[in-house]
Write a structure and sequence with these properties.
The complex is a heterodimer. By secondary structure, chain A is mainly β. Helix content of chain A is 0%, strand content 40%. Chain A has no helices and seven strands. In chain A, the strands form two sheets. In chain A, strands 1-6-5-2 form a four-stranded antiparallel β-sheet, with no helix packed on it. The radius of gyration of chain B is 19 Å and the shape is elongated. Classes of the chains: A mainly beta, B alpha+beta. β7 of chain A pairs antiparallel with β4 of chain B.
């Protein structure tokens, strides 16, 4: 994780291209929906983050070799 | 969804108060345009928020498990840790051991193979192996 500089510039969170990931395209009623599959590589990405008092850029690949838990939630200050 | 600035405020003004003044021990990522949520299938276009999604990724970068919930119900960290320990056991055994329903560390594991077919009842008993 590298710290990013002061000011209002910050790294853009972005998906990274990969040969094959767990994302499958599912077309239902003309809508496009994507869901992940277990047993397939996790989609790679990088994103800005707050970590121990610093603003850093995180790349999922930095954590390879470790068990990772990735959590999504609706928003900061939500209650549960 | 929130910016890193909001993450800092949440850490400083609320979460650290649940942690005896310590910072949140893991990186709080920002996915402001929802692109990472879309990639993992947890972004809700209607509300512009992310559902409660939790993904376990092994040391090779393979997704081993996920759980997705609507916002009002919180997750269970103990269950997540139980799953990680089970996946670690299976990985260390190189697939020679599997963990039956409700497995916890110290409980019976099973050795998959032709001899086990139809004989799980001899090795695993809900009354004995599902209790706390």
């Amino acid at each position: 994780m590298k710290e990013f500089g002061p000011g209002c510039q910050r790294p853009k969170g972005q998906p990274k291209p990969a040969a094959e990931t767990a994302v499958v395209q599912e077309v239902q009623k003309g809508e496009e929906r994507k869901m992940i599959q277990v047993g397939k590589p996790a989609p790679l990405f990088s994103a800005p983050a707050f970590y121990q008092g610093k603003f850093v850029e995180v790349d999922l690949e930095e954590f390879k070799g470790n068990w990772m838990m990735l959590c999504f939630y609706p928003g900061d200050f939500t209650f549960v | 969804m929130d910016s890193v600035y909001t993450h800092k405020m949440w850490n400083d003004h609320e979460l650290s108060k649940m942690l005896d003044g310590k910072d949140v021990p893991f990186p709080m990522l920002s996915d402001q345009n929802g692109n990472i949520g879309r990639l993992y299938g947890v972004y809700d276009e209607e509300s512009g928020t992310e559902t409660r999604g939790r993904f376990l990724i092994d040391p090779d970068g393979i997704v081993q498990a996920f759980e997705v919930m609507t916002p009002p119900v919180g997750r269970n960290v103990a269950e997540t840790l139980r799953q990680i320990k089970a996946f670690q056991l299976v990985r260390e055994s190189k697939g020679t051991a599997v963990t039956p329903a409700g497995w916890k560390p110290g409980k019976t594991t099973l050795k998959p193979g032709p001899e086990l077919v139809g004989n799980v009842w001899k090795e695993w008993n809900p009354a004995k192996d599902l209790d706390d």
